[in-house]
């Protein structure tokens, strides 16, 4: 059985690690937890998150990237804020390379969707996890 408190890593490819880092670090406020330059034949990577969180985002890129980003409308990273996203946060995200986009009737009602520089979607929900179902 898996311990429900197990940590989670969300891994995604990126065409431009510097642009993705700006979006998640300067826009969303994640911290750089780890960074590595790939050796010969290896990809570069950056891990971003909050120290106290049970999850982090790993982005891989560079010239040896095996798979390019192919985000779909359903590739969502949803953060439950418990209140509407603040205007300053949305401004930081767009200033850091994100773009606000419509998602669907459900998420447009309960949050705001911002595409990162690779096109992956970040949803900032005003709901809490307990009332999201």
TrEMBL record:
Specify the domain of life of the species encoding this protein.
Answer: Bacteria
Record SUPFAM superfamilies: Glyoxalase/Bleomycin resistance protein/Dihydroxybiphenyl dioxygenase (SSF54593)
VOC domain spans which residues? 6-127
In terms of InterPro entries, this protein maps to:
Glyas_Bleomycin-R_OHBP_Dase, VOC_core, YycE-like_C, YycE-like_N
User: Which Pfam family is one of those matched by this entry?
Assistant: YycE-like_N
**What is the name attached to this protein's record?**
VOC family protein
Source organism (scientific name): Micromonospora radicis
